[in-house]
Write a structure and sequence with these properties.
By secondary structure, the protein is α/β, with parallel strands linked by helices. The protein has three domains: 144 residues, FAD/NAD(P)-binding domain (3-Layer(bba) Sandwich), CATH 3.50.50.60; 109 residues, FAD/NAD(P)-binding domain (3-Layer(bba) Sandwich), CATH 3.50.50; 112 residues, Enolase-like, domain 1 (2-Layer Sandwich). Helix content is 31%, strand content 25%. Strands 1, 2, 3, 4, 5, 6, 18 and 19 form an eight-stranded mixed β-sheet that branches. It has a five-stranded antiparallel β-sheet with strand order 21-22-25-24-23, sandwiched between helices. The longest helix is centred in the N-terminal third of the chain and has 15 residues.
């Protein structure tokens, strides 16, 4: 039966009553299940596909491994082997055996609601005091691409050989990362990204990434694809045609909750996912939470990043297991694009900060470490509100994803800009660029005639 324990290490025999049921074994679902099992809670984890979800199997891990292999000058076969090795090394941490040994009951199958706190999995019923829906998302496929051969992040890893000419439909982070990886591996790459590439990011920060791809020989069309023909061949909105050997669709992600029968649980959902409050409780049913890609919190919207899914899990754990209040922060999530150079953003961009926002910029061309390394492309950009408070930070440059954590912490803790300006950092490091940017804010206030006259007076005092 589908509901039988999948590993002999299960501490709890299968029961139809659980304290917690989790649907989906991706980043969010696994984190909630881990905490519940370690605390001795009767928890069922239901997964119809592969443990570890999209990030481990077809998303973050394979894509970053591919990029690393490409940057090291390895060929496509070597890159594929590295991807398999990386997944195999991480998979035991996400395996059914591990979670079963922790005390969770692992159920393989497709879950559907039969009531507000009841589920059916392959004909077997169970109930739970609390239910977490963490079913993730899938690639969004434009209607005009149906009927022609295409690849997505779920299938591109199965390619037997390197494409000779890869068309990439999309202009977001995945499109950029795959364009860089496949061009570095030796493929010809053409990107059809629409009128604006990386539309969620600050144009000043994205410009070096666009230039880097163009320098690699990637062709970019700032127009939309309007139709497709076999080949693959895309027809752009101006009537021109672009042909290649393979087509990768990287046009965002969508949520499919059609199999969940949410209406039976009184849960609302739309094209962007299951509607929740900032507590991640589903509207209409407080016994059910949504986490990860499938969640659409009111006033915030979907935030489809693996690290956000982990944050969702933490919020749910505090409420469902400890009965403590917890809710999502309104601060836009930290994120990164792992190219050469990298782009990372924490908090609001300049556009998001609204009228009266001010920016402080320090280019790496004026950073001693960057100069010493002959790698001066990029900048640090701090975004201040009209009152001079830090509301966002963006970095373009090597290891930007590693550097952005400082600013994410500052935003979360509401740290004053003066703390960054006074921070003592090792010399020479790229991190000094942010400190110098913050220092420029106070320099404007310090080096003025009034202060100069005061100092001249003070230095003459006995």
């Amino acid at each position: 039966m589908a509901s039988a324990p999948t590993h002999p290490g299960d501490r709890h025999r299968l029961t139809d009553r659980f304290d917690l049921a989790v649907i989906g074994a991706g980043a969010a679902g696994l984190s909630v299940t881990y905490a519940a099992a370690r605390l001795g809670v009767r928890v069922a984890l239901i997964e119809r596909g592969t443990m570890g979800g999209e990030c481990l199997n077809t998303g973050c891990i394979p894509s970053k491994t591919l990029l690393t292999a490409a940057h090291r000058g390895e060929n496509f076969e070597q890159a594929k082997a590295r991807i398999k090795t990386a997944i195999a090394a991480i998979a035991p941490m996400d395996s059914a055996a591990r979670y079963s040994d922790l005390g969770a009951t692992i159920i393989t199958g497709t879950a559907r609601f039969t009531g507000r706190q009841s589920l059916e999995i392959n004909g077997v019923a169970l109930t739970a005091r609390r239910i977490v829906v963490a079913t993730g998302s899938r690639p969004n496929i434009p209607a005009f691409c149906e009927g022609i051969p295409y690849l997505t992040n779920e299938t591109i890893w199965d390619l037997p050989a390197l494409p000779t000419h890869l068309l990439i439909l999309g202009g977001g982070p995945m499109a950029f990362e795959m364009a860089e990886a496949f061009s570095a591996l030796g493929a010809k790459v053409t990107m059809i990204g629409g009128p604006r590439l990386l539309p969620r990011e600050d144009p000043e920060l994205t410009a070096p990434l666009i230039a880097a791809l163009q320098a690699r020989g990637v062709t970019m069309f700032a127009r939309r694809a309007a139709a497709a023909k076999s080949g693959p061949l895309l027809v752009l909105d101006d009537g021109s045609e672009v042909a290649g050997s393979h087509l990768l669709i990287a046009a965002g992600r969508t949520v499919d909750v059609s199999t969940l029968n949410l209406a039976a649980a009184g849960i609302s959902a739309g094209p962007d996912g299951i509607v929740t409050g900032r507590s991640l409780r589903c509207l209409g049913n407080k016994a059910v939470f949504a986490a990860g890609d499938v969640a659409n919190p009111q006033g915030i919207g979907p935030q489809r990043y693996t690290h956000v899914a982990g944050s969702h899990a933490s919020i749910i754990i505090r409420q469902a297991l400890f009965r403590l209040p917890a809710k999502l922060s309104a601060i836009p999530p930290v994120r990164a694009i792992y190219m050469h150079p990298e782009l990372a953003q924490a908090g609001a961009t300049q556009a998001q900060a609204g009228p009266g926002a001010k920016t402080l910029i320090w280019p790496f061309a004026e950073n001693d470490r960057a100069i010493a390394e002959y790698a001066t492309i990029g900048l640090v950009k701090l975004v201040l509100d009209k009152n001079g408070r830090l509301v966002g930070a963006g970095i373009t440059g090597p290891n930007a994803g590693d550097m952005i954590g400082l600013y994410a912490l500052m935003l979360a803790q509401k740290t004053k800009l003066s703390a960054l300006a006074g921070l003592i950092l090792p010399y020479p490091t790229r991190s000094e660029a942010g400190k110098r940017a913050a220092g420029s804010f106070f320099a404007e206030k310090l080096f003025i005639p009034k202060i100069s006259r005061l100092v001249k007076f003070l230095v003459r005092l006995p």
